[in-house]
Design goal:
Length: about 325
């Protein structure tokens, strides 16, 4: 995605739509913000030269339009059937998020995007629906639907990425799994899920930027990429951090949410989430022996010449994913 002037304007409009949805005081204003966000993101992922991106844009538009239609229809029923309306709105927002069991569109759309577009889909596009869901978590029916969606997302995100060889699909199923932790954190307090989302956005962005710099989209690309062993080690450790392996940065938000769930007596849900996290770590760990031990023959040209940001990414990715090693455990317990 080349950062031309009109695409920068669409990014600014996308961010303004997200801010409008978060700060709105009515469902109509929130719907306007979601629509502004949607119509700004479609031009960013549409390409006449790439049929996969055009197909991904069409799928994304249809799903998001369906979710927006359900929201505006349900908001008109808040005075007649408030409980049903709140439940329908929460399900529509879960559809927009790509949380299970409404997840099937998310990996397919991710597969048709490049890494810069995938970063926006994994981070900014999830911000407005998650804030709107957090406003609804006080309702009993919404509370039950979020709990079921969190358990389904944990299982689907763990099992869906086992046999995948596409890095974009692996990150998409990892995002679905992380969504389960954030949905449960919403039911406890707002601070927990905000901390989780902020750290998840940082880590996933750093991983996607590294894959962008090396132009890696599948497992063989990591093996055959013309990079140094240090770069491969950084990429593997970044995936470990995304999977939540201690003592990397990705473990910090899971630790915080785990302590909150124990305090709130969410023991069964915590067991499901921890077991699913172990499965997600499996399809990250299985990449390590092959990508690190096998190296291709080095050629004189390097991809770094086409992507000059690569030398800068090494310390940036390391700082984002490894600073958990430097945080005292006393601060986390507090």
């Amino acid at each position: 995605m080349s950062f031309s002037l009109y695409k920068i304007s669409f990014v600014l409009t996308l961010i303004s739509g997200t801010v409008l949805s978060i700060s709105s005081s009515s469902w109509f204003a929130a719907w306007i913000g979601l629509e502004l966000n949607l119509m700004s993101f479609i031009p960013l992922i549409t390409s006449k030269k790439n049929q996969l991106q055009a197909e991904a844009a069409l799928k994304y538009f249809l799903i998001q339009a369906l979710g927006s239609a359900i929201i505006i229809l349900s908001s008109t029923l808040t005075l007649l059937q408030p409980m049903f309306a709140l439940l329908a709105i929460s399900l529509a927002l879960l559809l927009k998020l790509g949380a299970a069991p409404f997840h099937s569109w998310f990996p397919q759309v991710m597969e048709g995007l490049d890494w810069s577009q995938a970063i926006i889909l994994m981070t900014i596009q999830k911000l407005a629906p998650m804030f709107l869901i957090s406003y609804l978590s006080v309702s009993f029916y919404t509370h039950a639907s979020l709990s079921l969606a969190a358990i389904c997302s944990a299982v689907v995100g763990a099992l869906g990425g086992i046999n995948q060889t596409s890095l974009r699909k692996i990150l998409s199923y990892s995002s679905i799994n992380h969504m389960s932790w954030m949905l449960i954190a919403m039911l406890i307090n707002e601070t927990s899920w905000m901390i989780y989302f902020f750290l998840y956005a940082l880590i996933s962005t750093s991983v996607a930027l590294y894959f962008l710099s090396t132009q890696s989209y599948f497992f063989p690309h990591l093996i055959n990429s013309n990079t140094t062993p240090l770069s491969k080690i950084i990429s593997v450790l970044s995936l470990y951090s995304l999977g939540g392996m201690p003592p990397f940065s990705g473990f910090i938000p899971k630790w915080i949410v785990t302590q909150e769930m124990i305090t709130a007596s969410f023991f069964f849900t915590l067991l499901v989430l921890l077991l699913s996290s172990l499965v997600t770590l499996y399809f990250y760990i299985r990449l390590t022996p092959v990508s690190v031990s096998i190296s291709n023959s080095q050629s004189k040209w390097s991809l770094a010449s086409f992507y000059p940001v690569t030398p800068i990414l090494h310390p940036v990715v390391s700082a984002m994913n490894l600073f958990g090693l430097l945080i005292p455990s006393v601060l986390l317990i507090i």
